[in-house]
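pipeline/complex-builder :: batch 7 item 3
reading input block
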Amino acid sequence: MRGIWIIAQNTFKEMIRDRILYGLLIFALLLIGFSLALGQLSFTEQVRISANFGFLGIHLSTVMLAIFLGGSLVVKEIDKKTILTLLVKPITRTQFLLGKSLGLILVMLTGVLGLGSILFLVLWMMSFDVGMGFIWGLLGILMEATLILSMSLCFSTFARPVTVASGVLGLFLIGHWLESLEFFIKKSDSVIYKMVGKLMVSTFPDLEVFNWRSLVIYHETVSTKQALFAVSYLVVWVSIFMLIASFIFSRKDLG
Amino acid sequence: MFVLEVNGLRKSYKKGFIPKKQEVLKGVSFKVSSGEITGFLGANGAGKTTTIKCVLALAFPDAGEITFFEQGPLSLDAKMKIGFLPERPYFYEYLTGKEFLKFYGQLSGRFSSVVLRSRIESLLKRVDLWAARDKKLKDYSKGMLQKIGLAQALIHEPEFVILDEPLAGLDPDGRMTLSELIRDIAKEGMGVFFSSHLLNDVEKLCQKVIIIKNGLVEYEGGVQDLLKKTGGRFRIVYIEGGVQKVHIIDGNEGELQSYIDQLRRRQCHIIEIKSDNTLEDAFKKIGLGS
């Protein structure tokens, strides 16, 4: 555990100096700012628009962090050859992967907390009573980004960052489209469409499981059953991706 | 004690659009002892770096056996006793020299934070980087990076260090500092295994050399033995009949001995015998030099 934590701390230090991070944070801040401006246009829907845009900004920036920084986490170490001295120290390759992931999760957590606090202030200034739904919304974003990070990391053990980013971006879109796909499967008469659709639904991770971003508007919260399911879903998928990543990376020639 | 034993190491890579197998190591075997500086020599592409990567489990051999400290293959316990400086080291540029050593020291998990702090201080002083301790590594020169890299390899007081081209790219001062440091750590009982192109430095530093050619060990033994074996140029200064004379022998030690016997029979007075043979000459003679 000590090795994982030390690598995580170093990864955190490395990431907070990355330009991509600040680019994405500015993007999220702009979206939150834009939400304020848009909110002014509609008197009745002001809070709804601000909350939606705010969450969209936090969601997209965190997911992009997981895709782009997650996909280059290991490749960067291999390309810069910093991995050579690291893996000769008493740590395993799996510990290295876990440490790098934990470092990025800490960065994402910091980002979500920072941007979440700004959004909270915006909503508070609108005299909106923010309930537990707000916390669940942020937690859902972090859980989804963690799953996406594990995908990026897994694919980066055998593909280049551009390929990883394109692939994971595709899976991200599919992951939010699976519920609609299920709906169309029920409506469709085509056997092939049904077969392919069912295969996709059962093969790809459903990212809508973590979509609690609209709860804040309706003052709703997540039930214990829903939360437990989401946590189990996350643990299972992250374990699958990390196991594959560890399996491939443990057999990879470096340098 | 042998700190490293390599037996029958084979490694091939597949390269090209239509993958073609290329055998880099064809059965490399050698041993490295503690308290000794062993030079690992070979031309570019001979397999030096691949051997080091296989030894450190950074690449996986197709066949062969690697034993550390006469116990077994590379384990986490064995890693605690090994230090490594790669060729052309790249480090985390955003860390300062002190932070960098702290990171690697913590990873090795051998010392408490108090002991580690004093160890960092003494190592930075030893490699002449104390003044640059708070500078970011991105502002370090190549020589400074090489020095901090060596300090990183030594941070956890290993029993065996592997150095890949540690003296390359250093100015004469830097080379002298690092050479002295390498000599000192070997005196303290550490096994040092280092690959180098700088034959002059290897000759001065190493007791033993391993020469690799085309993926096979061509020579393993003492530096002096190699010089004797490959012969060379000897310069004999002697006095015969009150006149000082000089004779040059291009040959091995046997030829030198027979010429000395001849001079004795002629009742000459030998003043000086000097060997001009260098590792570079030996290298050329066994077909490895340029």
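note: Chain A touches chain B through 24 residues (CB under 8 Å).
queue -> next item
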